[in-house]
């Protein structure tokens, strides 16, 4: 029986993508689990992004090639329903293998720490133009969840795809599997994988310094100054039953770069809401519960600047998006910032309305027990990274 085969190019692209896919996903899972200070994390991130972009390019090539050379017709004897489902599964694969790398690209374009993507340390890939949108943090979270979910979903489809192929090969015995094998095609795929691995070794074999850990990597494009709770403070004052009380966050980090060119400047902060401390255990437990910070569902609050303007000596007006309890609001922070060589100091104070972020639900919506306005201020002692 004569077999209608795919072209060598289509076969090479198929096996190149298929054989890179699972190792790439496993690499993603491993690197996501590593500590941010582990230099291996940075290398794996760069490798993962590089191979992910390669898959995206291979998918584009596959699509273009499919338009140029249509796939060979399926065997005449194959039932219509089987042809229909095979077509649907293939279309779904195309869709997923585009959305997966694209969602990864969205992650790196909206991450609070800006790590440039340079494919195999050779070709720089710009971020998607998502920096100016207010909901950056929400988009990051959604893209991240989607990215991970789609990987597992695609694995499920791959298993289905493999099972269907084996069924055709060994039960139906219609030689369908042979359509996607040719010596030249498989050798082409292996050569492409060998080149991918050789290029990947540029990243894995490169010299790593302490500073190549993730939080520090921003300096590749912008030097920045960094602070965390150990030598800085982030405090707030509220009113409970008419009496003022103060609190602070015991865990947070901030990255600031104020350049002469303010369009290159940024202020970013990440706060662990679970670290709130008002010196009163009962009140702290209440603040952490679902009606208040809801730390189970929203363990992180984030601030990301979108625009910085100079308003006086060492004074800046920092406009940005504050993400708290799942809600994004634009706030304008008057910030004092003074740089002195490798260190910098920054202070700011702002009054927020807790209702803007849905903080205080149920009976707490009323201002009778706890006031709506909360004064927040910080002092950051930053060091150059
Ligand atoms: C078909 C291609 C891809 C697959 C199968 C894939 C798969 C994965 C998986 C399974 C994870 C782990 C998710 C987690 O546990 O949190 C991950 C993480 C990640 N991926 Fe991909 N990925 C692909 C392409 C890309 C591309 C093209 C980029 C960027 C240009 C990218 C960027 C990232 C980043 C930044 C993370 C880490 C997120 C974090 O901080 O935890 N990925 N990827």
The name of the CATH architecture of the largest domain is: Up-down Bundle
* Domain tally: 2
Hetero groups bound?
A: protoporphyrin IX containing FE
DSSP helical segment count: 6
CATH fold-level topology of the largest domain:
Fumarate Reductase Cytochrome B subunit
Order of helices and strands: HHHEEHHEEEEEEHEEEEE
Count of extended strands: 13
The rough form would be described as elongated
Q: Helicity range of the residues?
A: 40-55%
Q: Could you give the distance between the termini? A: 67 Å
- Low-confidence spans: pLDDT under 50, at least 5 residues? 207-221
Rg result:
26 Å
What proportion of the residues form beta strands (DSSP E)?
A: 25-35%
Query: What is the CATH first-level class name of the largest domain?
Result: Mainly Alpha
List keywords for this structure.
385 residues; alpha+beta; Fumarate Reductase Cytochrome B subunit; Lipocalin; 8-stranded antiparallel barrel; 13 strands; elongated; binds protoporphyrin IX containing FE
Polypeptide structure, described:
The structure is a single chain. The chain has six helices and 13 strands. Strand 1 (117-119) and strand 2 (123-125) form a beta hairpin. The chain has 385 residues and is an alpha+beta fold. Strands 3-6-7-9-10-11-12-13 form an eight-stranded antiparallel β-barrel. A two-stranded antiparallel ribbon has the order 1-2. The model is unreliable at 207-221 (pLDDT under 50). The protein has helices spanning 8-33, 39-68, 80-110, 136-172, 183-204, 281-288; strands at 117-119, 123-125, 225-228, 233-240, 243-249, 252-257, 266-272, 276-277, 300-312, 315-324, 327-340, 343-353, 373-384. Helix 1 (8-33) packs antiparallel against helix 2 (39-68), helix 2 (39-68) runs antiparallel to helix 5 and helix 3 packs antiparallel against helix 4 (136-172). It has two domains: 8-215, Fumarate Reductase Cytochrome B subunit; 222-384, Lipocalin (Beta Barrel), CATH 2.40.128.110. Protoporphyrin IX containing FE (HEM) is lined by residues 21, 24-25, 28-29, 32, 45, 48-49, 52-53, 55-56, 97, 100-101, 104-105, 107-108, 117, 144, 147-148, 151.
